[in-house]
Design brief:
Elements (H helix, E strand, L loop, with lengths): L1 H4 L11 H12 L10 H10 L6 H17 L2 H11 L1 E3 L2 E2 L1 H9 L8 H10 L11 H13 L8
Antiparallel strand pairs: 1-2
Helix pairs in contact: 3-4, 3-5, 7-8
């Protein structure tokens, strides 16, 4: 998940300024606006906030992100993320996703299966971990998985 979603997770305090800068630069060049949310921001949104995009929701999300980072260790935030994430229609949490999509407990996933699950997270109701989109994205994630997420 770190390779796919937030590979500097252990190095920031809830906001990845490098990714935010990249997203802004891309938008200024006329590219499609892309997200730069960290795992902590996604936990704040999924745990406490409503769906949709607004400056009000983003403001609450920023505040809650700081609270989470101050109150919880990084490993607990990651645990919450993995258990809150939706991995398909009505499929919540990494354990349920592993069993639903691959018929094994999460601890028994292969590297490729884990990468395929991570690959569908941007749109888990539209993409299957066995589909073409997941295949393409999983290849990139597997490349990034060669390098451990840096820790402070």
């Amino acid at each position: 998940m770190l390779a796919a979603e937030d590979d500097r997770f252990y190095l920031h305090w809830g906001f990845d300024l490098e990714e935010i800068e990249k997203a802004i630069a891309r938008a200024k060049r006329g590219g499609r606006l892309r997200g730069a949310s960290t795992i902590t921001q996604q936990v704040a949104k999924n745990l406490f906030l409503w769906e949709g995009r607004s400056f009000v929701r983003k403001g609450y999300e920023a505040y809650l992100t700081l609270v989470l980072e101050l109150c919880l260790p990084k490993d607990r935030i990651l645990d919450l993320y993995l258990n809150l994430a939706e991995w398909g229609d009505g499929v919540f949490g990494a354990e349920m996703a592993a069993r639903q999509h691959f018929g094994v407990p999460a601890a028994k996933l292969t590297r490729e299966q884990a990468a395929r699950l991570a690959a569908i997270l941007p749109s888990p109701r539209r993409w299957s971990p066995r589909g073409a989109v997941a295949s393409a994205r999983a290849g990139i994630i597997l490349e990034k998985m060669q390098y451990a997420a840096p820790r402070p």
